Amino acid sequence: MAKIQIRFLSQKDFISTVIEFVEGGSEFCHVEFVFSKDEQTALGIAGPYVGSHSNAGIQAYNDSYYVGGKTITRERNYNLSVTDEQYATITSFIKARIGAEYDFEDILGIMLHKDWHTANRFICSAFVIAALWAGGVQMLNVLPGYQYKVTPETAHLSSLLIGNWCSY
């Protein structure tokens, strides 16, 4: 068995404020994957966190991202147990999407209840849900192709997270 690490957070910056407004005052505005140093080396990624951010799309990055007004104000971390095969599929999906663009239209679409998602672009929560779905892990009752409707707050409601809280 393997573990996939996920962290939910809230931070202070313009896009986070917009996301929290769109979600009606949510607890979390971002979700991403977390990898240990050994996993970073094995995957060939440059930082412990992989997520989709408005300024760079899907990237691996480190704590230096959270400086200059992007202070983390809330954080919750989870480990999901997966098979070795699921882990390989999920991490392959993640690695293959590094460099994909952020889906700004999706944020507006969620706010206005419209399908304004752009193919092969991701908001953070859609990226996490799609990567897990690729490995057969269904966090929510969401059909493939509809991951763009998931926000960090709704992803955090997943029953798969119950009892899987961790600290890093």
Q: How would you portray this structure in words?
A:
It is a single chain. By secondary structure, this protein is of the alpha+beta class. The protein has 6 helices and 6 strands. The chain has a 6-stranded antiparallel β-sheet. Helix 3 crosses helix 5 (124-134). The longest helix has 14 residues, at 84-97. The two termini are 19 Å apart.
List the helices and strands and how they pair.
Layout: E1 2-11, H1 14-22, E2 30-34, H2 37-43, E3 49-53, E4 57-61, E5 72-82, H3 84-97, H4 104-112, H5 124-134, H6 152-155, E6 165-166
Antiparallel strand pairs: 1-2, 1-5, 2-3, 3-4, 5-6
Helix pairs in contact: 3-5
Short précis:
With 168 residues, this protein is of the alpha+beta class. 32% of the residues lie in helices and 23% in strands. The protein has a 6-stranded antiparallel beta sheet with strand order 4-3-2-1-5-6.
Give the neighbour order of strands across the main sheet.
4-3-2-1-5-6
Series of secondary-structure elements, N-terminal to C-terminal: EHEHEEEHHHHE
Number of helices: 6
The rough form would be described as: globular
